Write the structure tokens for this entry.
Amino acid sequence: MKSMKLSLEGSLGKLRTTYVDIFYLHWWDFSTSVEEIMDGLHCLVTQGKALYLRVSNAPAFRVAQCNQYAQDHGKLQFVIYQGEWNVLKRDVEGEILPLCRAEGMAFAPWNMLCVGKLRTDTKEEREKTGQAGRQGLTSTWKRNEMERKVSGILEKIGKEVGVNDIRAVAIAYHLQKQPHVFPLIGGNKIKYMMSNINALKVTLKQEHIKEIESAAPFDIGFPHNYLVSV
């Protein structure tokens, strides 16, 4: 409780404001009880320092416990979950996204573009041969075969839907897979921000989504894969 209070008050001072619209619980503290965490967060809300609560990097069952406790005791529950989600890393589809649908929570995905690994071969070659590319390329910039394969499919689908930017296609994939998705986008140039915004104009067919997912198979894990097979 004290740590959250000091953290928020410090942020409010730096922002020169008296409240924030959404207060994040960024990491789950396994040494603190659900009751203490939710009571502490609710105090910040009743004091007018935060309007809504957001959680990230927490197990689904803990978030469910928190929301149930909040509902049972007339407190504010979490309204949005932030987590990593992209076409190559879909772990949140096992428990987190179903939780969000059941609880009426929004979802804020980050790293949707796989740290820049989703790019066309043309763009890669251009950056390799450019002066900035020769100076700035690192081993982490290189793509593996799966990343190349998925990038190729995104480029193909982009041409089919009339979009010349695979980043927009990748973001559109998330927007159409789950309701109430609010992507966390980034970019150090206006053109990158505009390409992200262009995702709002992209409409993918169900066949497109299946094609994207077939390129990077995902095991949803037990018990979901077992229940589907029964």
